[in-house]
Each structure stands twice: as C-alpha cells, then as structure tokens.
Amino acid sequence: MIQVGEYTFGLDDPLFIAGLIVALILLLLVVLLIVSVRRAGKSSEMAHILASQMGGLGSRVEMLSNGQQQLFGGLTSVTEAQAQQQARTLQLMEQRLSQVSESMNVNLSSSAQRTAQSLGELQQRLLTIDKAQENITKLSGDVLSLQDILSNKQTRGAFGEIQLNDIVSKALPSDAYTFQHTLTNGKRADCLIHLPNPPGPIVIDSKFPLEAYEALRNAKTDWEANEAAKFMRTSVKAHIKAISEKYILDGETADGALMFLPSEAVYAELHANFPELVREGFAARVWIVSPTTCMATLNTMRAILKDARMREQAGAIRTTLRLLHRDVELVSERVAKLNTHFGQARKDLEDINTASERAGKRAAKLDNFDFEEVTPEVETAVVPLA
Prior knowledge:
By secondary structure, the chain is α/β, with parallel strands linked by helices. It folds into 2 domains: 2-115; 154-311. Helices cover 73% and strands 8% of the residues. It contains 8 helices and 7 strands, in the order ββαααβββααβααβα. The chain has a 5-stranded mixed β-sheet. 11% of the residues are buried.
C-alpha cells in the first residue's frame, strides 16, 4: 500500500499504475531532454524536431493527465459505491445476525425447558427404579430367608403348620378344631377337626418332602432321576405310615386321616408321576391334600358340622315350638274371656243408655209442668171427700 495525500493506493490499483506510467514517461522525457540538450550543439534541425516532439509529448502528457483525473474520479465513485454497498451489506448482516440470535435464543430457551422437563421425568423414573430395586433387594432377602426356612426340617415343619392353621381358621368356626391336640397315645397332632360320629374327629398332619422333590427336579442324568424317584417314594411312604400309626385310633378318631402338603407342585408331582403312592395312601386310609384340595375338603366338613349342629338343635327347637303353641292357646283362652267381659260391659252400657233416656224424658215433663199426662205407676188409696 502507498499513501498519497489523503488517498491510499494499492500496488494493483489502476490509478497507481497510471500515475507510475506518467512518472516513467516524465522521467523518460527528462532523459530525452538532457540527451537533446547535449546534442543541441550538433544540429539545430534536431532541436527543431525535438521541440516539435516535445510539444506533441506535452499535449499527450496533458491528455494523459486528463485521463488520469477522469480515472481518479471514476475510482472515487467506485470506492464510494463500494463503501455504501459495504454499509448496506453490514446493516443486512447485522439484521440477519440479530434475527438468527433471537431465533437461537428462543430455540435454546425451549430446548432448555424441554431438557429440564426431560431431566425431571428422568429423575422420577430413576426414583421409581430405585424403589423397584429396593423392593427387589427386599424380595431377594425374603426369598433367601424362605430358602433358609425350607432348608431346615423343623422350620419347614413350622412353615407347613402355619399354612395349615391359616387355611383351617378361614374355613371352619373356631370351636370346630384344635391345633396341637394331644391324643390318648401321647402323640400330638397338628390339627384335630371335631366332626360328629360318624366319622368322628379327624386328624390333619402337615408333611413336606422337600429334599426328595428338589433332588427330583435337579436330576441331570437317568441315574440321578431314578435315585431321586426312590428317595421320593421312601419319604412319602414313611409319612403315610407314620400318620396311619399315630393318628388313626379306634374309638377316638375317625378311621382315616389327612396328610397336608403345603406345596401344590409336590402334590401335582405325586399325582402325575407317583400314582402308586396316592393309592397306597388310600389303602392306609391316609388322604393326601394340597392347600387347594384341603380348603375344598374343609368346606365339605363345614357342611357336615352345620348339619350335625342342626340335628342337635332339633329337639330344642321342637320343645320351643311346643311351648310356643301352649302360649298361643293361653292367649286364645284369655281373648275369649276378655270378649265375654266386653259383651257384658256392652249389655250394661245399653241398659244404662236406656235408663238415661227414660230419666231424660221424665225430667222434660217435669220442666213443662205436664202433670195431667203423668200416669202414676202405683195406684194410691185415696178416699174422696163428700
């Protein structure tokens, strides 16, 4: 860039190039002039020619100067037009940037709101997930506790007894059963149902062959499956025998007992794959029940108890009906007597009404002094005067 007065020109500026050309021409003219002066002594003709050429060159320089001024004016106009165009362009760019900035602010604000809403929903879902995780953790602990309970025979027996107690207490009235009842042989039954004779009190005992069932479910080979099946048969047969010997007593209990299995899966396994065990229980008069079938059996017992109690109360009902009939007869007799009294009272009232009417008539005659019309009821002996 080159500064000339108030104007600044670049090396590729046409005005600068034109000025440089003029300067070079002037410099060339000066050189030619010097050469011409040096050669002035040689020939006057050359001086005349040079003078004429200088005149022509001066005119050309003047024309070039005029062209330079015109060019400068055009460049000035172009510069001003470019400045105005740049100003308009800057103004449009500023407006466009303002619009874009406003639109971006609106979009960012809405995006921030949506993001905040999404974060809030995400937080709620995370809280729900945390609660579900806590429930899962608690449930896992409960499952582990249940596994611990079922892994021990005593606690497993208590688990079956609790389930049996819950079913019996829901199906029967409280005076129809006894838990942990001791029989005359010293054996304690889990539950004794007080049924009338026949069939008599019946025992329900809880058994849970869990080890045999788990071994059967976890068997991987045929040998393991056969061993587990043998274990299941041995366990169930032992339970059936124990119940038959301990809880079926002549003259004290019914001629059968119930073996309660607190697992529908074990009950289904016996009926599906070990029907001979079920038949063996029938032969020993020990009926195997699950929670569902036990509830159905207890409802049947409830109907039997209801019928027996109705028969027990039949005599009392007949006695009450006889007394009620006697009371009705007494009421009928007393109503008849009262009706008689009402009839006598009605007759007395009629007589009183008749006497009252007669007395009223006589009072009316006395009030009118109507003695002539009075007829004496009794003749009096009156001696007339002469």
